[in-house]
Amino acid sequence: MAAAALGGTQCQAFASSTCSSPRRVAAASCEVTRQIRQVRPFRHAPCGLPWRHLHCNSSLHHSNQQLCTDRRGPSLVACASAAAAPGAGGSDAAAADASWFSRVVLPLALVLLVCNMDRICLSVAILPMAQQFGWPATVQGLIQSAFLWGYTATQLLGGHLADKFGGRAVIGFGVAWFSIASLLLPAALSPSVAAAGMTLPAVLLARMCVGLGEGVALPSMSNMVAAHVPASAKARALGMSFTGFHSGNLVGLVLSPLILMRFGWQALFYTFGLLGLPLLAVWLAVAPAPNRTAADATQHKHADGLSSSSSSSSSSSGGSRGEAVSVWKLLSHRATWAII
Fold it and tell me: Is 283 in contact with 113 (CB distance < 8 Å)?
């Protein structure tokens, strides 16, 4: 800690290795003998923070910080350097906004856009496919529902995997998976598969695999936004990401008939499936990796909070201890199913 003399009284200053004060070493072991005085609130406090009624002594600077005093005595309050240089704070905030938008929100919106384009193309292709293969309405409905079999199956699994490995890895795997599944769907309708009598099972399996890959997208999106977007912008980031999600329906329904009329229904699955390759490359190059240090710190903090909560609960209610809540325990409650 550095030392400063305010009104003839030594106080504890800032623990900064960059402080150039010659008294820093000598002041490292000094103790604060004066309690910080509490005074009435003042709305024009330094740094724009809800400090007490304080006045900064602008002549005392240590490591781009200020020592502040109130009207009746010294106080040990560190003002943020942004108070002295508001322009720098504004540029840092603008850079942070650009970072989370370009590295998290925009790639997420593109991923969800392609997801829904792959999802919606069968709704357009099913009509010429049904005419070619003689599928009645019941088979058409069964084929279109196969996507939701896989999509529903990986919702909970996608959230669990995103929490464990990070949304970046899970979304990358999902993009590769549903892109390959889309490319393989025309092969499920090939003459060799038809000769084996496996056309319908092969088509159902291919569409279910598309749903399996896309089902991890939304849980992983929530993980990415929670981990890499500031708290003040999370709702905005989710709104932008969902804009890409719903735009996939719009773009897919506009482009699919044009591609189908020009190149045939097989081209729909080849086109949207191949879009996943550059999308995957962009995602892996731009999306941030999970910050394990911050995640571990948050987990330890949460564990400490649970420990303190359980210890206080045990002291007041006779020793009952908190326990981890499993997925099966959540599913055993009616409130969970009401939400679902």
Answer: no
User: Exposed/middle/buried for 142, CB within 10 Å: 0-12, 13-18, 19+?
Assistant: middle
- Specify whether the CB–CB gap between 184 and 122 falls below 8 A: no
Dist. CA 137–CA 224, nearest whole Å? 40
Q: How many CA atoms lie within 13 A of 48 on its CB side?
A: 8
Amino acid at 207: R
Q: Are 74 and 9 in contact (CB under 8 A)?
A: yes
70 strand-pairing partners: 73
Cα(187)–Cα(290) distance, rounded to whole angstroms?
37
Provide the sign of the torsion angle of the four alpha carbons 306, 310, 316, 320, taken in this order: positive
Render 99-164 in DSSP notation, one character per residue. HHIIIIIHHHHHHHHHHHHHHHHHHHHHHHHHHHHT--HHHHHHHHHHHHHHHHHTHHHHHHHHHH
Of 33, 46, 43, 37, the C-alpha closest to 75 is 37
Classify residue 289 by its DSSP letter: P
Could you report the per-residue pLDDT of 109-143, keeping only the tens digit for each?
999 999 999 999 999 999 999 999 999 999 999 99
Tokens 């999106």 map to which residue?
221
Each residue of 154-189: b (16+ CB within 10 Å) or e? beeebbebbbeebbbbbbbbbbbbbbbbbbbbbebb
Q: Considering only CA atoms, which of 208, 198, 188, 202 is closest in space to residue 145? A: 208
Assigned token pair, 243? 């804009």
Structure confidence by residue, pLDDT tens digits, 33-56: 444 444 444 444 444 444 444 444
- Strands in 65-70's sheet, in edge-to-edge order, are 55-62, 65-70, 73-78
Q: What is the CA radius of gyration of the chain?
A: 30
Rounded-to-5 percentages of helix, strand, coil across the chain: 70, 10, 25
